Amino acid sequence: MTSDQYASAHNVLITEIGDGDGLSWDDATPGQLHLLSRGGGMLLQATTSGRQEATFQCQLTAETVFRATDSLFLLKVPATASGHQGTYGLRCSGSDTAGALAAAVERGLEQRRDTGSEFSQKTDEGSADLYFRYYGLLQHQQNMLQDYVRTGTYYAAILENRADFEGKVVGDIGAGSGILSFFAAQAGARKVYAVEASAMADYCVMLKDANPALGRRIEVVRGRVEEVALPERCDVLVSEPMGTLLVNERMLETFLFARDHLLKPGGRMFPQVGRIHCAVFSDAALFAEVASKAAFWQQDNYYGVDLTRLLQPAVDDYFAQVVVDAIDPGCLVSDCNSKLFDFGSATSADLENIVIPLRLQAARHCHVHGLACWFDVLFDGTTSQRWLSTAPGLPTTHWFQLRCLLGQPLTVAAGGVVTGELRLAAHKRQSYDVHLTLTAPPLSAGGAPQTARSKLDLKEPYYRQLCAWNFQQSAIPAPQQAAAWAHANGNANANGAGHANGHASS
What we know:
This protein is α+β, with helices and mostly antiparallel strands. It has 3 domains: 6-115, PH-domain like, CATH 2.30.29; 125-240 and 476-500, Rossmann fold (3-Layer(aba) Sandwich); 274-470, Hnrnp arginine n-methyltransferase1 (Distorted Sandwich), CATH 2.70.160. It is 26% helix and 35% strand. It comes from Elliptochloris bilobata.
């Protein structure tokens, strides 16, 4: 039992309902059903007489508990819940006890309906449904797992810092297939809670059961992080919350929620720090490519219809897409400005409106076509530090890099300073509106400064090289030396994994 405050506790008789057996109270056990508010959710927890550990615990929902008769309640504990799974009968000693339990259950359900979770308050439900459906598909998990820069860096960061995991309770936030949970178990974690809201949780259970040596220490918790309740606080949180430009999908806010509600004070976070980096770029070919996409609307006799009135709106639409691809470092024409986020102290409000001031000096005379961005994150372990970087020129990841195009390029002399700001405004579709303003010196003495502005949607990118990259990655075999080698040699410190997979530190 933990120090969290129970909403209520009720004396009941508990019996498990076997397949086809019906209800039998011959071996029923006296116990208590607790309703516990924790971590943004409401937890049902049953304990039997003489035992402090829970017989089972699961989220309070309309699907997990209902009143069958005046004194009988039925509970369906899902396979992803903690403790025993199955269907249970709870019999109250009298109508007063049953009425109190029914009222407590209804209050808990009403609280969920009325207040909603932090996630539901900030997220359009349609967007959330699409998001969790996407990540519930194996092909998308494969895309991430086959990013060996990403996966190998996480493996090395966790295994090289065994002291941070051995004997500890770990929370895997947005666990997906559970790969980080397995890494934590390999590093000696006593218990790993793999929290996953999508249907991928079922596949995670399958992998857990197929790998019992590690899986016995992993417990899959199906639900949104903002709505689940864990039986204990975690010593360490691991997560891969980064999206395009670090913040797309707004998963970082979920990571911060887990820090506040699921992590012990002073607990560790993997990763601990994230940075967004920006530089201006010159790429006439990209500018022409995007502009040419609207050429269709130049037709003044398309089956007898003049389309030219829509030419400018079409141009605006295409330039409102951020471009996601692997950048040739040679197109970068300035120094770099950066924005740092410490996940140990940042707040959700810090991520709702992000402003990055820009002051960038051009290295050569050129046309500036926009702003290039990338990110990195730091795993700040006790034993070693690892950076996972998506910078141009380093091995490509599934995040690539991102560019914000200007509708009107700026002409800048060598040494000229481009100023402005990049502002990211969060919206309920789990992404950001991107506002870019760049100002360059006048084209001639005494003239007005050049200023260009763009508004782009981070959620609707132009994936310029995605298909080719996926095809290439599918042909690359996974590195085999890491887990198998460490297991065979009894050595969990995979110092060589990062070098073998082409990782780089920033």
